C-alpha cells in the first residue's frame, strides 16, 4: 500500500474526513483532517487537538508498519480558509462564500470571490458575485479551477450571548467577578 492510501484508510477508519495530504522535499508529511458533515439542523463540530493527536499516533504506527519514509508528520485541521477539492466538498459548502482561482483567465481575471451554488448543468457550479442588484454569475467545472477555498468567517457574537450580571452583584470598585 502506498503512503497516500495508508493515510486515507487510517483517517477514514477513525471516522474523520481526509481533506488533503502532501509531502514536501524535506520529508515532511502534512495531513489535514476534518469532522464528517452532520445534518444541517445540528452544529458542525470542529477538529480538536485530541483528534489530531489520535490521528498522529495511529499514522505513526501505520506508516512504520507500511515502511513509508518520512522525517516529520504534521496533522491539523484545514483551517478557516478550508480548501475545496472534491465534488463532495463543493456540495457540502454550497451557499458559502468562496475564493476561486481559475486555471485560465475569464474576461481578464483568474480570481473571483462570491457565493457558491450548484449550477443547472450536471457537474457544474456557479459563483455569484458583485454588488447587490448588479450580481454576475460565473458557471464553471471543477477541472477549470486551480484553487478554491472558503472565505474565513470570524464571528465574535458568541461572547454577547452570556447573561448579564445583575447590578447588585457588582463590587463597589466596578469589578464584576464574584
Report on this structure.
- It is a single chain.
- With 178 residues, the protein is α+β, with helices and mostly antiparallel strands.
- The chain is 20% helix and 33% strand.
- It is built from three helices and eight strands, in the order H-E-E-H-E-H-E-E-E-E-E.
- The protein has helices at 3-13, 49-66, 87-92, and strands spanning 16-23, 28-35, 72-76, 97-106, 109-118, 124-129, 136-141, 145-150.
- The strands form two sheets. A five-stranded antiparallel beta sheet has the order 7-6-5-4-8, with no helix packed on it.
- Strand 2 (28-35), helix 2 and strand 3 (72-76) form a beta-alpha-beta unit.
- The chain is globular, with a radius of gyration of 22 Å.
- Mean pLDDT is 86; it is low at 173-177.
Can you give keywords for this protein?
single chain, disordered C terminus, 178 residues, 3 helices, three-stranded mixed sheet, alpha+beta, globular
Amino acid at each position: 500500500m502506498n503512503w497516500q492510501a495508508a493515510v486515507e484508510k487510517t483517517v477514514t477508519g477513525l471516522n474523520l474526513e481526509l481533506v488533503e495530504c502532501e509531502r514536501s522535499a524535506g520529508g515532511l508529511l502534512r495531513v489535514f483532517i476534518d469532522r464528517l458533515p452532520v445534518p444541517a439542523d445540528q452544529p458542525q463540530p470542529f477538529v480538536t487537538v485530541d483528534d489530531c493527536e489520535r490521528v498522529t499516533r495511529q499514522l505513526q504506527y501505520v506508516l512504520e508498519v507500511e515502511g513509508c519514509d518520512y522525517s516529520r508528520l504534521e496533522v491539523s485541521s484545514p483551517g478557516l480558509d478550508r480548501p475545496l477539492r472534491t465534488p463532495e466538498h463543493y456540495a457540502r459548502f454550497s451557499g458559502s462564500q468562496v475564493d476561486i482561482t481559475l486555471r485560465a483567465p475569464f474576461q481578464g481575471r483568474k480570481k473571483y470571490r462570491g457565493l457558491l451554488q450548484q449550477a443547472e448543468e450536471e457537474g457544474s457550479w456557479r459563483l455569484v458575485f458583485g454588488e447587490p442588484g448588479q450580481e454576475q454569475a460565473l458557471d464553471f467545472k471543477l477541472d477549470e479551477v486551480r484553487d478554491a477555498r472558503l472565505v474565513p468567517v470570524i464571528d465574535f457574537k458568541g461572547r454577547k450571548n452570556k447573561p448579564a450580571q445583575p447590578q447588585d452583584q457588582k463590587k463597589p470598585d466596578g469589578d464584576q467577578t464574584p
